[in-house]
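Sample intake sheet
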Amino acid sequence: MKTVLLCLLIVLLTVTAAFAQQAPAAPMKTYTGSFGGGFALTSGNTDTKNFNLTFDMVRDPKTRNVIKANASYLRGTQSDILSVDRTAFNVRDEYSLTTRVYAFGQLDYLRDQFKQIIFLWAPSGGLGYKLINTDPTKLTVDGGAGGFFEKNPGREVTRSGAVTAGERFTHKLSASSTFNQNLGTIWKTDDFGDYLTNFSVGLTSSIMQNLDIKVEFLDSYKRKPQNIGVKRNDTAFITAFVLKF
C-alpha cells in the first residue's frame, strides 16, 4: 500500500511540475493584419510589368466593437505604356447590437486613372446581419446610406446621396487555406442607373507561420463612366505573397 501511495505521489508531483514549466498561453492580439505584394514581368514580343500592393488590418479587442481597414494598389505597363493604375481603400467600424445584428459606419475611396476617376469618396452607415457565424464559415449581408463625391478630369466634383449593399463570405477549407468572396455596390440616389460594383474572390494558403500566398480575382464595374470611350468593366487577376502580423 505504501508503495502504491508513493508511486501516486511521484506521478502527481511530476504532472504538477510539467504543467508549471509550460509557457503561459499567448494573449489574444488586439491588432492583426497583413502586408502583401506581387510582381510579374514578361518580355519578348510584348513587354509587360505588373505589380500590386495590399494591406489589411483588424482591431478586435474582443468587445462589441471591431474596426477593419484594407487598401490595394495596382499598377501595370505594356511595352512601357501605362495600362493599369488603381488605388482603393476601405475603413469600416462595426458594432454588434446582438449576436447576429450589427451597425456599421464606413468610408470608401477609389482612384482609377483608366476609369477617369481622380477620386471617389463614399461615406456611409447602416445595418448588417450575420447569416452564418461559425468558426469555419462566416456569411454577412448589409445595407446602408450615405454620400457620394466624385471628381473626373475637366469636371467639377459631383455630389449625391448614396445607397449601399454588400455581402461577404469566408470559409476555412483547412487549417492552412481560406476562401474569401466579397461583393459591394454603391448607387447614386440622384440617378440609380449610375452605380459602382466591386467584386472579389480569392484563395489564401499558408506557406510558413507568418507568410501566406494569395490568389485573387478582382472585378470593378462602373455603370456610367464619365466618358463614352471608357469601358465599364475592369478585371484583374493577382498573385501576392502576404506577410501577417
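Comment: Residues 1-23 have pLDDT under 50 and may be disordered. Residues 29-244 form a domain with the Porin fold (CATH 2.40.160.40).
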